[in-house]
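HUMAN: Mind making up another protein with tokenized structure?

ASSISTANT:
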Amino acid sequence: MLRRAGEWFLRSGIQEPSGGVARFYRSDLAKNARVSTEITGYAVSTLLYLAERTSDANYTEAAMRAARFLTRSAWSTPLSTFPFEHCANGNQPQHLAYFFDCGIIVRGLLAAWRATREQEFLDVAVQTGHSMIVDFQARHAIHPIVSLPGKRPLAYEPKWSASPGCYQLKSAMAWQDLFEESGENAFQAAYETALENALESAPFFLPGDVDRERVMDRLHAYAYFLEGLLASPDRAECAKALSDGIARTGEYLNEIEPAFARSDVYAQLLRVRLFAAQVGIAPLDETQALREATLAAAFQLQDSDPRIDGGFAFGRRTAGMLPFVNPVSTGFCLQALALWSDHTSGTLNANRHVLV
């Protein structure tokens, strides 16, 4: 599984020669979506995880190309941020910056810094972390999107990705990571504020919609909240939220999956189960964990086309797999299944810093 997923990252063309990574590959149209800075950040973390697991230098080289794309091409020095997505042919998206994207990119750059100690990765990560505080953080919420160049918050919308919410804690975890690397207290204070707001809003995030497919999408976002809690597992309120959240996510997932299922939700839930069990927050439900591992593995694609083979599909409906071969789904699933393999062999030693 790991070898085939890794080969998909290296050989499919999902990473372009620039180092940037496309949001997904459309198998029905035989074309990549636009390069995404957020997805490139995820890819850095994924490729370095593959390098650690396999000792294959090809993954490190691909990760460095992605990281340098972020610091040398995608990063806007005048705006001190990462604009949403990226395009070299003039077909630019709306000029925006997303809090969530910036946090994922910071965590990718910090992974590159830990692997290589190349100063540019830490420098841009720190600058981005400061900009995230200035551009997005308010006392009782984190603005999800700002317009560029003025950095004015966009009006909130009902969909989860355009409103503040507990899901933002995964990206806010970048502030805690930056504090650990730089020692700057402003980063820890920013994470603490985000954690407080996330714990307050989380009980109201699910189901959040009457449409069951949209609830499945919100499970993906809610799992980001659970992942963000892994930065503070020793706090009683975080441990309770994590334990309760695992059970709640599993119930919704089992209820909705016959009509619509996302591979990343299975993988996210399995990873959180394993991390929580390792630090003693919640005993591992072996039956559910095995079920999630089995169902996540079923999304890995087999095809004669190297643009598809080994990658993981985004999701499925009753009619079959959806035509999106997705780098984030692939990263989440390969890591979840590798961690599950470690658990079954009694060698699990998960570290939240490697969490894709």
Observations:
- Residues 2-354 form a domain with the Glycosyltransferase fold (CATH 1.50.10.10).
- Strands lie at 21-22, 25-26, 31-32, 35-36, 96-98, 145-147, 260-262, 315-317, 320-321, 324-325.
